[in-house]
Structure formats: structure tokens, C-alpha cells
From TrEMBL, chains A, B:
Its cofactor is Mg(2+); a divalent metal cation. One of its GO terms (molecular function) is 5'-nucleotidase activity. Its EC number is 3.1.3.5. It is found in: Cytoplasm. GO terms for cellular component: cytoplasm. The gene is surE. Nucleotidase that shows phosphatase activity on nucleoside 5'-monophosphates. This is 5'-nucleotidase SurE.
Length: 258, 258
């Protein structure tokens, strides 16, 4: 008989990232943990999957032996697919991804490998949460986020998630006592103003680095950006039915079949 | 004075794919065309962007000189970003992506490089359409789709698109006279049942190929899958606000701050 929930842990910064260590440690207090994470960083991979090359998995030695871990040569979405189909001997009760080193709030959800793993789990019908800390540093302090992550995960394990949604959780980079609480939010309307840093190779050919500035156009007080700026942890329910249902009616007035 | 619309053409199968040739030829009848497309196939890349390596662009020689073309070392989303910010001398009136060799209907939109280019344009506030033909073959017959693509593009150039949406167009693999028309649809609820084909390297180590079967759970007659099966071209308005607005109220009943 199953007594503890089975929790699959993954991320997009790779299996050696400090963020996933923290997430593993919190999850061990809540269930049986299996880790399947990329063998190298996959940030900015969006919802990529590996169709045209082979996938490799390696069992990782875990010191205390209190969970199982595997590294995978693929993307975060690949990790979830291969975990559920090849590695796990039963269906996980929850998939958690992160803790990402850096924000996945507002439009960043679109580019996020962390969230692609959660969304992949959601597509498979498994409750899933992506966690991100607003600090890109490898030495980010993940300690303050621990009790909040525990609260959110306990709620999801107890209540479940509506079919077709996963949670996008972003955590402000603050000391624990400065974090004001957890807020359910909508995704802010924002984007990146790109700037390409144009350089020359030693051979004199142009090349580019993508850089940019994040611009929040959204003045709403119900958005993830607003919550994070005010010191709250943001929780956005994310869907993978991308249909803009509100636009169907207008499109049906077009002359597409004359 | 600008008399013709400026149309940016991209794709995810790479600049040499037959599908993009067809799209370029149709777009030349409707506006001034600039092509910025990946220098190699990018299928299954989702909404990946290149953050950790350099981007290179090459001007491509075009025989008749009736449009400009560039290949880019990045993903489809990179192509749109670098085109808008570095290559084009004015903002495009429309971005079209495709014609993809293979379906991007229903859940495939999530994994689609073709659609990531259209969505990236949408994020930048530019009307955008992704086109896909339901034939994976390199020798697919794109001729029948031409008049329908022209109709859809003319409507978008005339009517514009609501802020925050782009169009996902899928075309059945049929002779022109067998195509019944164009239908505005919602994304069908469907997914892939993965199957990993497990093999051994010559050295005896396991590795995997991702394969799978597409499963449509959706019985609705207003979905893209239904339309395509019945011989229609499907047009789904796609949004990049991923907030599941219908789930906000329920999440707000949780005890997240006790």
C-alpha cells in the first residue's frame, strides 16, 4: 500500500544546481523523491523536446540513499517524459521543477525550461508546480523560500489541481521575515526590449549576443509582477490550452470562405 | 511613403525547406518580403531562445533579387528578435512562419518552433501567423495550400489581429478541390502517448529514442482536430497570456497564508 506521495523533482539549471538541492530537501519531508534532471543547464529552452537525437540517462549515486536520482541528456520536458514512461515504477503524485535560478514571472513563462517541465507533467495529467527565485546567481540563498514551498506543495497534495492547469511560483529574493506571504496572481502583460550586442570575431565577422531589458506594461495590482515587487510570493495558474477563446467570435466574422 | 506591407517570413525547418519557399512565393504577391530563417532545422524546439551562445547571420543570395533573405544560427524565436531589432529597417506589418512540414494542431502548438516564431512576433505586438501542412515529408505538396494562405493573410492584413493573439493555421494534406474551406477552431484536448524506443550502443549502454502516438480525447466539433479530419483548414487564435483565469477563484480558497 502506498503511504507517501511519490514526488518527481526536475529543473532546467541541471542536476548539480543548488536550487534543485533545496527543492529535493524540502520534498524529502513530504514524500518519496525521485530526481530526473538535465545533465547540463537548459535555460531558455522553452518547451523543447528531443526528436532528432538520442537520449541517455545515468543513475546518480546519492550519499544517504534516501532518494533516487538520474541525470538525462535531454531537455526538462524530456526529463518528465522519460521519468514517467521509463524510470518510475508508478505514476508520480506530483512533479516539481526548480528552484530556478532567476525569475519565470509574467512573459518569462514562455521561454522557461523550468515551467516546460511542469507543463509537460500537466499535459500528462499529473499535478505540477514550477518554482523560481528572483536571483540569477549560482550562490543564491534558497533557505528563505523553504517554508513557503512546503505550504504550497502541501496544499497541492491535499487539494489537487484542476485538470489542465499547473502552478508557476515565483519567489522574491528577500530574507524570510521580509517575505509578506503568498498571493494568487495573473500573469502580468510585459515583454523584453531586446538589444543585440554586436561584436566582431577575431576574423572580422559580425556576431551577436542577445541582451535586453524587461518592461512591465501592466498597472494591475493582481499580477505576479506587482506581488513580487511588494514582497509576496506569486502563484499563477498556467494553462496549456492556448486558445484565445475571447477571439473566436470576432474571427468568425471574417470572410474566409468566399 | 509605404505602399506595400512589409512581411517577415521565417520557419523552423530551416531556410532551405520547401515549405518556406512556398510561403515566400505567396507573400511576394502580397507585400515586400524579407526572410530571416534558421540555418538548420529546429523542429521540437518549443519557444527556445539563445541566451548562452552567440548568434550569427548570413545574407543569402536571392536569384531574382525580388526579396531579401538571411540565415540565422539561432532558433525561430531568435530569428524574429534579430530580424525586428537588427535586420529590418522598419517594423514589419506581418510575420508569417512556415509552412511547417508536419502538423502543429492541438497540443503540438506547445512544442512547435513554427508557432514560437509567430508567438514571439505577437509578444512584440506584430500580427503573426504560423502555417503547417499535415505532411512531414520533405517532398510534401504545398501547392494546394496557396490560395487558402493568401485568403487568410489578406484578412489579417485588412482586419489586423486583436492584441495578444496570433493565428495557428493547419492545412490538411489534400488536393485543392478536396479542401472544404477554412474553419475558426479551438485547440483540441489531446496529447502524445510516449513510447521510448530503448536500444544499446555498440558499447552496450542503454539509450532511447522518443516516439509516440497522438491521442485526441476531445469529441467537440469545434476543434482543430475535428476540422482537419473533415477536410477543413483550421485557424486557432493562440494567446500567450497563459493565466488560467477560471482557476484563480478556486486557488484563492486555499490556506496559503496561515
Amino acid at each position: 500500500m502506498k503511504d507517501k506521495p511519490l514526488i518527481l523533482v526536475t529543473n532546467d539549471d541541471g542536476i548539480t544546481a543548488p536550487g534543485i538541492r533545496t527543492l529535493i530537501n524540502v520534498m524529502k519531508t513530504l514524500g518519496d523523491v525521485v530526481v530526473v534532471a538535465p545533465d547540463s543547464p537548459q535555460s531558455g529552452m522553452g518547451h523543447a523536446i528531443t526528436l532528432d537525437s538520442t537520449l541517455h540517462i545515468e543513475k546518480i549515486h546519492v550519499k544517504n540513499g534516501d532518494y533516487h536520482a538520474y541525470s538525462c541528456s535531454g531537455t526538462p520536458a524530456d526529463c518528465v517524459k522519460i521519468a514517467v514512461n521509463e524510470i518510475l515504477d508508478r505514476r508520480p503524485d506530483l512533479v516539481v521543477s526548480g528552484i530556478n535560478h532567476g525569475s519565470n514571472s509574467s512573459i518569462n513563462v514562455i521561454y522557461s525550461g523550468t515551467m516546460s517541465a511542469a507543463i509537460e507533467a500537466g499535459i500528462e495529467g499529473i499535478p505540477a508546480i514550477g518554482f523560481s527565485l528572483l536571483d540569477y546567481s549560482w550562490n543564491a540563498d534558497f533557505e528563505p523560500s523553504k517554508p513557503f514551498i512546503k505550504t504550497i506543495v502541501k496544499n497541492v497534495l491535499k487539494e489537487g489541481l484542476t485538470d489542465g492547469i499547473v502552478l508557476n511560483v515565483n519567489i522574491p529574493n528577500l530574507q524570510q521575515k521580509k517575505i509578506k506571504g503568498i498571493k494568487v496572481c495573473r500573469q502580468a502583460r510585459a515583454n523584453w526590449k531586446e538589444k543585440f550586442d554586436k561584436r566582431k570575431t577575431p576574423q572580422g565577422k559580425d556576431y551577436y549576443w542577445l541582451t535586453g531589458t524587461f518592461v512591465n506594461y501592466d498597472k494591475g495590482k493582481d499580477t505576479d509582477e506587482w506581488a513580487l515587487e511588494k514582497g509576496y510570493i506569486s502563484v499563477v495558474p498556467v494553462q496549456f490550452d492556448l486558445t484565445a477563446h475571447h477571439a473566436l467570435q470576432q474571427l468568425n466574422t471574417w470572410n474566409l470562405n468566399e
